[in-house]
Amino acid sequence: MTGHIENEIDLEHFARLSVATGFQYFKTMNDALVADTKRCLEECLRIKSELGDGAIPPTEYAEMGFWYRGLARATMSYAEGLLYVMRQLIVFAEDRGDLRLSDGESWLVRERQWAFNPNAKEREKRIKERGRFNRLLENFVLTFDLFPQIFGSSFEIDYSDKGWKSFQELIELRNSATHPKTVDDVLLRPEWPNLIKDAAVWFLGVLRDMTSSFDLQMIEEDLRRVAKTPAMQEILAKRRAQRAG
Q1: Strand spans (E) along the chain
Q2: Whole-angstrom Cα distance, residue 16 to residue 19?
Q3: What phi and psi values does residue 155 have, to the nearest 5 degrees?
Q4: Exposure pattern of 51-61 as b/e (b: 16+ CB <10 Å)?
Q5: Using CA atoms, how far apart are residues 216 and 20, in angstroms rounded to an integer?
Q6: Burial of 146 (0-12, 13-18, 19+ CB in 10 A)
Q7: Tens-digit pLDDT string for the chain (245 aa)
Q8: How far is 164 from 199, CA to CA, in rounded Å?
Q9: Which residues contact 233 (CB under 8 A, 6 or more apart)?
């Protein structure tokens, strides 16, 4: 269960097959998305260790600002990308019957809603399905409420942790740094390094704790089961043919 999915496989089709293939897909996408965050975090910790808690020397200000702003952007890109992958897997699990959602949960995780148009002339056209753009924090809480259940886990985030507050503040910081309207939006304020670091470390810790709570025995058993299915055999046959070609 530790290997990566080969590039030749249609990843989303693979992920739809079962709990085990969804887990493989999640791990593969997580490894791809986390790389920039870990690199920026390592560099930020190195710089902070070398400089200590004193005033930032002018010669180091630009370098420090570059890496901490990079960590803020990388962490939020990682979170948004992984939340999308996790919501995909929630939808796949519901479609397979492996996860039961309320109507509200199902519509929200798919970012869909109903709209009523009283001016439509035909009755059947008055009520239509349309897209709904969830806010990042909405997607975060909804996704982490539902996603662990796919893998037999009752994991819950402790939202009283100060890391959650840092993560919410990081969202605002990232928004202002990405779309600056004043000089203050791009300057490295004294409180930013610790805030950015704390938020990144907290999010990485949440993912570590969540995945360690998964029922690996259930996932292994599901992998053995799905390996024998015609759908998996077809995927493996295509991969062998591509390698041979």
Answers
A1: 112-116, 127-131
A2: 8
A3: -55, 135
A4: eeeeebeeeee
A5: 9
A6: buried
A7: 444 444 445 778 889 999 999 999 999 999 999 999 999 999 999 988 887 766 667 777 788 888 888 999 999 999 999 999 999 999 999 999 999 999 999 999 998 766 766 776 777 666 666 667 889 999 999 999 999 999 999 999 999 999 999 999 999 888 776 666 665 656 666 677 889 999 999 999 999 999 999 999 999 999 999 988 888 888 877 777 777 76
A8: 7
A9: none
Pairs from 162-167 (Cβ < 8 Å, separation ≥ 24): 162/198, 163/198, 163/199, 163/201, 163/202, 163/203, 163/205, 163/206, 164/202, 166/195, 166/198, 166/199, 166/202, 167/199, 167/202, 167/203
Q: If you search the block for the tokens 């969830």, which residue do you land on?
A: 134
Tokens of 226: 């799905």
Q: Letter for the amino acid at 49?
A: S
Q: How far apart are CA 25 and CA 15, in angstroms?
A: 6
